[in-house]
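Researcher: We're teaching a course module on how sequence relates to structure. For the next exercise, students receive a sequence and then see the predicted structure as tokens, so they can try to spot secondary structure elements on their own. Here is the exercise chain.
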Amino acid sequence: MDIGIAFDLKSDFAAELEIPGAHPEDALEEYDSLTTIEALEHVLAGRGHSVRRMGGGKRFVEAALACKPDLVFNLSEGRGTRSREAHVPAVCEMLGIRCTHSDPLTMAVSLDKGVAKRLVASYGVPTPRHVVIADGEVPRELGLRFPLFAKPLAEGSSMGIRRTSRIESHGARVEWVTKLWLDYKEPVLIEEFCAGPEFTVGILGTGDHAHVVAAMEVVPKQVPPERFVYSLEVKRNPQWKDEVDYLAPPRRSAAEIARIETVALEAYRALGCRDVGRIDVRMNAAGEPLFLEANPLPGIAPGYSDLALLFERLGKSYHDLVLAIFDEACRRLGLAG
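Model: And here is the predicted structure for the students to work with:
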């Protein structure tokens, strides 16, 4: 099979960061390194497929028009709008090219955290109470209980999430929301902070065939769970093992794990995710698991991304992860993988 890889590298946009003050320091956090693309190529080529790099944005469009692949393995985050993750699957849909991962509607809906929360809530999936601040002006009364949590509406990879994202007063709320608004030039989501343990749930498959791989608990080492923020500082820390443990499966009762996985799977299906996804769930102080956000285009950087770490904790290899995604896409599309 001729497989094209759609991707965006940090180096593709590095020139943008040369303009002082034009972008937050984590502006390229979503994008891959060449190491990830090489690792993906190695796995797919090892299955006997011909693999070529198509890139993202205009390069992807030009490559697709020049020579359509049999399948696109999509890692492309896109650039510039809340619909950016929908760019590659939309081009594939328009040109009749088969593509891994979710379709453009699911990609766009999931990246806008407010829309995603409203959609999953309409299916009865519990999520923290929240509001979206569209213009940077923060009213004193939001109808939400402190502590709160604020983050950019349409970013991933912990962009805009710091240890200070947990907010305990109106003054701190105004200060942090204003900073997010100025840095990211987009609306800000504010939700009631969940003081219980945090989990991320790996899911494979599509529709009724979707199934949970495992839940992984993110266990803080430096602060109590009720104050823990899974922030960019934690993820970027070279000594991250001093910050957190990753437990997959969690060391919790079967009933607790089942409730966490049910919330994640119901959210995944409500959003129409395909092939693979990672759903973030956190318990509130009462022990109720709540949907936080969905990632239908989860990172697969070997040894770093949460989904890769989850597979490692289960005793599975990076090859297992890539081929699991690939095989789910082939099964959905009726392809011999």
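Model: If you want an answer key for the exercise: The two ends are 8 Å apart (CA to CA). The chain has a mean pLDDT of 94.
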